[in-house]
């Protein structure tokens, strides 16, 4: 066999297949209308902590951040973590979870989301390893059925990432790839905060895009950005501005909290990322 053919086969074996945006779906107004019409269906039925007695907000924040680290270290699709976060908040809204099982539920939500979105889903064995063996394989498979039952097997939830390509195709910004990467980072950051779980995905997506546009496309005025997003999504400009300011506050808080990391040496190449979505690289 020719050496070039062998090298090509090796490259093909290592490359992960990724879907690309379908221009037909992006141009069809019915897709955007359907997303906007259906998004409220996948919001938590109640605030997560209205139903919980043992789980506190900071505990959920820790577990969601851990889920983000795992998905980033495993190079999961960008849709996996926001979807897993949606599952987590929906489950907590309808089922009491003891604090000792919170990470187990988070691992299972990540497990299910990766099955739905990944070409090669995360294995249960790998998730057990990421929990530092605090949960067992049998517990993951048992809890998976519980989570699926609580979600009523309604797994194709609409997340903020579902709106990104739709809105960007209509906005037509200059540096599209960079703006999308920034917006995905902001969405991932919002997905670690339960207070964003009750907000419509279109609102989180639009506010994240507005934050990205203000950081990159400086020639766009704030009024022009909000007016354009309002014409696309139907969300009031004042509402967009308010939530965009909330995202900016979260970014500032995150950067302030992690500022001490800049003075520490970078991790070795074989170590996992300490900050999964590399938000500290964003100029804000």
UniProtKB/TrEMBL annotation:
Disordered: region residues: 258-284
Keyword check for Isomerase: no
Domain (Cyclin-like): residue spans on this chain: 65-149
Chain ranges of the Cyclin C-terminal domain: 158-267
Keywords: Cyclin
Coiled coil: none
InterPro entries assigned: Cyclin, Cyclin-like_dom, Cyclin-like_sf, Cyclin_C-dom, Cyclin_N
Xref: Gene3D superfamilies: Cyclin-like (1.10.472.10)
Family per record: Belongs to the cyclin family.
Name of the protein described by the UniProt record: DgyrCDS4297
């Amino acid at each position: 066999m020719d050496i070039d053919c062998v090298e090509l086969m090796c490259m093909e074996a290592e490359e992960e297949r990724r879907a690309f945006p379908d221009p037909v779906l992006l141009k069809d107004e019915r897709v955007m209308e359907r997303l906007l019409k259906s998004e409220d269906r996948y919001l938590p039925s109640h605030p997560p902590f209205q139903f919980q007695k043992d789980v506190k907000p900071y505990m959920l924040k820790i577990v969601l951040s851990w889920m983000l680290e795992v998905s980033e270290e495993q190079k999961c699709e960008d849709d996996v973590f926001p979807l897993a976060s949606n599952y987590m908040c929906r489950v907590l809204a309808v089922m009491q979870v003891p604090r000792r099982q919170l990470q187990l539920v988070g691992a299972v939500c990540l497990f299910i989301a990766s099955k739905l979105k990944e070409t090669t889903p995360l294995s249960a064995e790998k998730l057990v390893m990421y929990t530092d063996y605090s949960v067992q394989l049998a517990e993951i498979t048992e809890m998976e059925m519980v989570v699926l039952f609580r979600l009523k097997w309604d797994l194709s939830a609409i997340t903020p990432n579902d709106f990104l390509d739709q809105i960007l195709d209509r906005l037509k910004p200059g540096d599209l790839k960079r703006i999308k990467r920034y917006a995905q980072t902001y969405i991932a950051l919002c997905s670690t905060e339960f207070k964003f779980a009750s907000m419509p995905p279109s609102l989180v997506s639009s506010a994240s895009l507005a934050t990205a546009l203000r950081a990159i496309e400086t020639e766009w005025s704030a009024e022009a950005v909000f007016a354009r997003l309002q014409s696309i999504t139907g969300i009031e400009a004042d509402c967009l501005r308010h939530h965009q300011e909330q995202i900016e506050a979260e970014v500032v808080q995150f950067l302030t909290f992690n500022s001490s990391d800049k003075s520490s040496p970078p991790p070795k190449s074989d170590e996992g990322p300490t900050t999964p979505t590399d938000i500290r690289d964003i100029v804000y």
